[in-house]
Amino acid sequence: MNAEHKHVVFRLGPDFFGLPIESVERILNAQTVTRVPQTPAMVMGVFELRGETLPAVDLRARFNLEIDPSPGQFIVVAQEGGSVAVRVDAVDGIAVLDDSKVEPPQDWLKEKEDDFVLGVAQSEGRLVLILRPEHLIPANVRKSLNKGKTAAPALRAA
Predict the structure, then answer these.
(1) Beta strands in the chain (DSSP E)
(2) I want to staple 56 with a disulfide (CB 3.0 to 4.6 A). Which of 6, 20, 44, 100 is the partner?
């Protein structure tokens, strides 16, 4: 018996990607993002959500795609060390995928340092690249985002 899992499916250009629904905290429309100087290009900055400052990462920049100036949407993803908002072109919906229909990534997609692809699935006549939420943000960027979070309360107290 194969298990079925729900995934939040989103677009970057003409391509579809998915995240396990368990890792998604919420989906937001465009937000006003405050830039943070001297951060990696993929880090758009931060915005406030219900009293919490969230780092915002542009997945187009993360995946080395052409930047789209349209506002897009944000998916708030639970990560080790705290939540992060990732900007996508548009959220397409929820897809229920059978584990047997998810193919593991081919060898050329696997990189030990940047293993963000969980698999590839067929859903509604299209290919969906399933992403690993824990590897969505590279480790070195996650570290700098987490440092910023720990430094923020000290700045507010000043």
Answers:
(1) 4-12, 15-20, 24-28, 43-49, 52-58, 73-79, 82-88, 90-98, 102-103, 117-123, 126-131
(2) 44
What is the C-alpha R_g of the chain?
16
| Count of domains forming the chain | 1
| Domain span at 21 | 4-157
Mean pLDDT of 123-148: 82
**What is 97-112 written as a DSSP string?**
EEGGGEEPPPGGG--T
pLDDT, tens digit, 9 for 90 and up, residues 15-55: 999 999 999 999 999 999 999 988 898 999 999 999 999 99
Instruction: Give the CA diameter of the chain.
Output: 57
